[in-house]
Amino acid sequence: MTSPLPIGATIGILGGGQLGRMLSVAAARLGLRTHIFEPGAMPPAGDVAHKVTTASYDDSVALTAFGQSVDVITYEFENIPTSALDLLETLRPIHPGRTALATSQDRLTEKTFLQGLGLQTAPFADVSDMDTLTAALSEIGAPAILKTRRMGYDGKGQARIMAADDAASALTDIARAPAILEGFINFSHEVSVIGARGPDGSVACYDPGENVHEAGILRTTTVPARLNPTQRTDAVLIAARILNALDYVGVMGVELFVTPQGLIVNEIAPRVHNSGHWTQNGCAIDQFEQHIRAVAGWPLGDGSRHADVVMENLIGDDMDRLPALAKTDVSLHLYGKAEVKPGRKMGHVNRIVKS
Amino acid sequence: MTSPLPIGATIGILGGGQLGRMLSVAAARLGLRTHIFEPGAMPPAGDVAHKVTTASYDDSVALTAFGQSVDVITYEFENIPTSALDLLETLRPIHPGRTALATSQDRLTEKTFLQGLGLQTAPFADVSDMDTLTAALSEIGAPAILKTRRMGYDGKGQARIMAADDAASALTDIARAPAILEGFINFSHEVSVIGARGPDGSVACYDPGENVHEAGILRTTTVPARLNPTQRTDAVLIAARILNALDYVGVMGVELFVTPQGLIVNEIAPRVHNSGHWTQNGCAIDQFEQHIRAVAGWPLGDGSRHADVVMENLIGDDMDRLPALAKTDVSLHLYGKAEVKPGRKMGHVNRIVKS
């Protein structure tokens, strides 16, 4: 067990998007600095970071200089090239660790891991070509979803199969990448648990939030979620089991489907999570600070919540609503992205619901 | 009336201390950038600002480049050299404006202004030498406080006069600077109102907080303050009257003494104020964002409060308590200052009081 990072220490963050931006602000609140590594120019996190390195993940000189300049390394997205991680882990600790990354980077590995813990998942089968897809469809049945094993997010890398006839076009849609076929789940709603685990094994989870998606992208999260006390306890215990099994350090998002047969794990994300943004206005210690605390070896907040919150993402043209939103008493969190694009997450608002 | 600054615009901030740091974070939340101008090296605000200029206030080349690089100028402290303001105001709008600065920079001007508005202040008299001090003492009586007209903060530039015999040494203590003699006020407690005014004349005030000082430095602010409904209304109306009289744009702190004879204005600060830090965890829109909104011409938040909060400053060796504080569910706000010094504000904590 290492000692906590002192005031003034630097946390290296791979990725300079909005999550890196909000992690940087949280680090600053604790008197810590951040150094962002990001291939793209003018990253959103750059505005609030102590230092930014603009370089590619295959630039070993830049990666080495970055690694040597920081005290610990974390990341805001899970699809970091393995070669970069191989280099960086020779220099500094990386949290969350490689096991968590490897598990969540690959849907097949992830689902196999979750089932191994005795948790419920959607039925799934490995798909590598037309033959295995045909076999999978006969086992799982249609409708089903074909999902690439890697690099999927916000509904990307997915194709629906409503009937066996759709199989060939679905394979084309995902460019014949290694995939899994997932059976449809009949769920009433989706919730997510934002859990955290420290290097000392302490675990703290926030109250589950209820998520609504549109076109595969998170639209709103509402806390508290519609769950009965048993479901609420189950949700938190599921998250804790996953965190412990991975010997996890940091914040994780765990998406769960609520069904009459219990909670079914949809997917896990080894990082701060869009569905945890409500914690910025509902908790003394939000998910970003919680992640920084875990990674820096500081004590975790207990995850308690002092307000009900509705978080709404501002996506693409939602920014046209900004003048009206700015006139209401909601917390705006804008990411400083220069260009509005369809489907692009531009910011979010947290609305505190007075009880 | 100018149009609101667009996303990506830059706010120039004179001063890079903790107030500039928290203003920078608030600007980032609105998708705005900050450029800090600060003579000292490694300013706390630098960690979270888009750009930092390290230069002296008499460096006209640096000031000009700074002014030209930003869209609007504000500041985190009121003792900015006049020559710097003269130069900068030829380049960009400065908010709050010169009248507010001139009024609050000089205790004699400030008190005269407040009395001109019909507000109560402590009895005071202009002191420039031993003769005027003797005359002031015979008018106001002892005990009294001799305060320099300019550059006083956190109890600095003040000398108590318990009896007429102390007059000579008090003058020496303040280095015979131009001063005022202030009569003692018999007050039960001090409260402050954090008020804001937009360029359209809209005014919004936060609920008054109750302040406790130690050795001239703010120790805690508690909201709600102990005030009856009439006092609460009076406090807010006093702040609004001051804001309107100065045609003010931005956030102002107004310190008030609570006495049986009503509220007495102690002093005003033309900037975000230490006694408003509780708003970070008690309001959807905190004082820092409120100031940025005013300066940027965005609509103001309504100042409503969703939680009771106790704010405690971490001063000097209070930082020894950090390990214990980090184990409790309070919101830490550390300023990233490298060196702990006696009396130095190192951070603060906001404790949300569940109702």
UniProtKB/TrEMBL annotation, chains A, B:
Residues annotated as binding ATP: 107, 147, 152-158, 182-185, 190, 213, 266-267
Catalyzed reactions: 5-amino-1-(5-phospho-beta-D-ribosyl)imidazole + hydrogencarbonate + ATP = 5-carboxyamino-1-(5-phospho-D-ribosyl)imidazole + ADP + phosphate + 2 H(+)
Xref: InterPro entries: ATP-grasp, ATP-grasp_carboxylate-amine, ATP_grasp_subdomain_1, PreATP-grasp_dom_sf, PurK, PurK_C, PurT/PurK_preATP-grasp, Rudment_hybrid_motif
Top-level taxon in the UniProt lineage: Bacteria
GO MF entries: 5-(carboxyamino)imidazole ribonucleotide synthase activity; ATP binding; metal ion binding; phosphoribosylaminoimidazole carboxylase activity
Enzyme Commission code(s) on record: 6.3.4.18
Keyword Ligase: yes
Keywords recorded for this protein, A-Z: ATP-binding, Ligase, Nucleotide-binding, Purine biosynthesis
Enzyme class (EC, first level): ligase
GO biological process entries: 'de novo' IMP biosynthetic process
Record carries keyword rRNA processing: no
UniProt GO cellular component terms: cytosol
Gene3D superfamilies hit by this protein: 3.40.50.20, ATP-grasp fold, A domain, ATP-grasp fold, B domain
Chain ranges of the ATP-grasp domain: 111-296
Role, per record: Catalyzes the ATP-dependent conversion of 5-aminoimidazole ribonucleotide (AIR) and HCO(3)(-) to N5-carboxyaminoimidazole ribonucleotide (N5-CAIR). Catalyzes the ATP-dependent conversion of 5-aminoimidazole ribonucleotide (AIR) and HCO(3)- to N5-carboxyaminoimidazole ribonucleotide (N5-CAIR).
Subunit structure: Homodimer.
Record HAMAP family: PurK (MF_01928)
Recorded family membership: Belongs to the PurK/PurT family.
PANTHER family listed in its UniProt record: PHOSPHORIBOSYLAMINOIMIDAZOLE CARBOXYLASE, PURINE BIOSYNTHESIS PROTEIN 6/7, PUR6/7
Protein name per the record: N5-carboxyaminoimidazole ribonucleotide synthase
Organism: Yoonia sediminilitoris
Gene name in the database record: purK
